[in-house]
Structure formats: C-alpha cells, structure tokens
Amino acid sequence: MQRRAVSAVLAAAALLLTAGCSSGDEDSPGKGGDRAPSGTTASPTRQAAETPPAKGTVKVVRTVAEGLNTPWGLAPLPDGDLFVSSRDDATITRVDGETGKKTELGEVPGVSPAGEGGLMGLALSPDYASDHMIYAYFTSASDNRIVRMVYDEQRAAGDQLGAPDTIFKGIPKGYIHNGGRIAFGPDKLLYAGTGESGDTGLSQDKESLGGKILRLTPEGEPAPGNPFPDSPVYSYGHRNVQGLAWDSKQRLFAAEFGQDTWDELNAIKPGDNYGWPEAEGKSDDSEFHSPLAQWGTDDASPSGIAYAEGSVWMAGLKGQRLWRIPLNGTEASADPQAFLEGEYGRLRTVVAAGGDKLWLVTSNTDGRGDPKDGDDRILELQVT
C-alpha cells in the first residue's frame, strides 16, 4: 500500500504567542461580535423549487447520550448507532442510537492531545459494509495525520480497533488551528479540512498542507482531477477549516474560523483562493473567493456543518448556537437564523441523519466551556 508522506511544518512556540488566536477561535475573548450576520439574497436565475423557505424551525427530540468527555468527531453507522471520538482521551466509543449505551472500541495509539489538537474527525469507509474501516484525523507528536483502522465488533470492548494504518501525514500541527474534519464526498473520495497551525503564511503557500481543503483517494494519494498536478490541495487560503458538507447537488460547503471580525461559510470551488490572511470575510479583490455568509466572531466560531432540508446547519462553539443558512444554489437565499442559543453551551459537531433529522454534539468539557450535569452529550434534532 502506498503512503504519501509530506514534510511536516511545525509552528514554533514564539509564533503561537504572536499569532493571536482571537475571537473567531476557541480559546480567547471576543473582539468583533457586535455585528449582525450577513447573508446574500437569492439569485433570480435559480429555480424557485431549489430555494428553501426563508424561515424554518428546529427542535430537540431527545438526548441520545450523556457523559462524553471532549467529544469531537461523529460517524453514523448504517444501523443507526454512532461512533464518537474523544479529542483528549484518544478513544472511539460506539453509542447505541436507541438506548444511548456507550461501548468503548479502544484507544487510538500515537495521538498527542494538546490545545486544539488530539483525536478529531472520524469518517467511515465508502465500503464500510465490507471492510469495516474507520478513518480518523489526529495530532501526533510531530504532525497532523490521517489513519484508518479495522473495527472488529467480535473482539472484547476496549480492544476492537485494529492497528492504525497511516495513509497521510505531514499536515502542520500547532497548539492552535489544527483543522481536523474529514468526510467522504459523493465521489467516494476523502476530504480533509486543515488549519495553518498559527503560521498564517502557510495558507497562501500551495506547497504547504496547512490552511487547505485536501482531496485524497481512500489510500491517501492525491485524488484524480485535483486542480494542482500531483497535489492533494483542493482549495487554499483558509485559516482553520472544521466543517465540510455537501448539498443535494453534490456541491461542497465549508466553515472556517475567522480571526478578529468575520467567521465564514464558503461554497468551495476547486483551485480557488479563499483569501486568508489577506482577506477575512467578504473581499472586493477578485483574486479571492468571498464567503456566501459571514458572522461577527462572537456569534459563531463554526466547527461542524451538515446539509438538511435545503439548508446548511452550522454548529457554533463560542456562539453557543446552531445556525441555519438557507441555500439557493451556492448562495444564501435569506439571512441565517440562530437556534438553541445558550441552551446547550458550545456546539462542536452536527451531522445529517437522513431526512429531517440531525445529530448534534456539544463541546463543554474541552477546557473552554462551562460543563453542566450530563455534559457532554449527543442530541437528536428534527428540522423543518
């Protein structure tokens, strides 16, 4: 099996101090949260049938599971159960989708949790029914990397993960901005959102893996048809991508943390430059692809996103709310709506569960929240 190894770029401690992880990130007070969210209007050339209503609703149906420590990634299984990663414990747990019973699969070796790093995104192989393969993105002692492991349900609890096979490595790591979201797209290729590890110059460097969306084969090679020859880079100019989702037309959307002023939801076009660090939020410079929606940084700090019922749903950490962004093609058809504001604290991950259902994961035990009894938890939502 071929593996692609790319040189790691490590953020120096002095750079961390000067990078100023600010209001759009997970660990510092807000500076620019007094501005209203900005959405675009619908394009008149789009068919009305594609455009969801400007207003919608969401309700919490039930709490699926409680007592999770630093949950981060969530991967639904075909039978309705859920895999959830613990960022700091480096474990993967199976949650019964009906009863909430938790069974630890095991600990992923080689994880080095610190700051915003650790065991993060999870994804199931497109051929999971036959290969039982779990993919994971994590911070090691030297870099961020992607591994895959065979899940063996017949083994004893705590010993159900096979040895990790590293398929991709060399993604820059830092105390901050490690990205971490992975997902298989409709094309059955693996997408990964990375951060610039506090070194802003990496985002505009197409030779670096930091501040990018990557597109890989399941074996970790640059995917055929990528915009840059022999490169895993799919888009660049990102600050810290932690949300990836596709709409019903197989169009990719991504959420990323801003710094002082604007958090972003972007429609991703292969090879495009999304501006960081030269642009934060919407830009008049035609060189940069502007976001389809943006938020004052107190209101969002966006991590996971999902697509359901014609809208993108975006989980906010510092904003402690779930945003609905109704879409008209690759534009927002109305201003974003906020739900669950302050009700469940920091919101880390949201995943489509089919039809009008979502799974939502809280993030109050990660050292930056205010844990309540039962935290952290997985919630089942219904949207209309």
UniProtKB/TrEMBL annotation:
Residues 1-24 form the signal peptide. It comes from the Bacteria. Residues 38-48 have a biased composition (Polar residues). The keyword Aminoacyl-tRNA synthetase does not apply. The keyword DNA damage does not apply. InterPro entries: 6-blade_b-propeller_TolB-like (IPR011042), Glc/Sorbosone_DH (IPR012938), Quinoprot_gluc/sorb_DH_b-prop (IPR011041). This is PQQ-dependent sugar dehydrogenase.
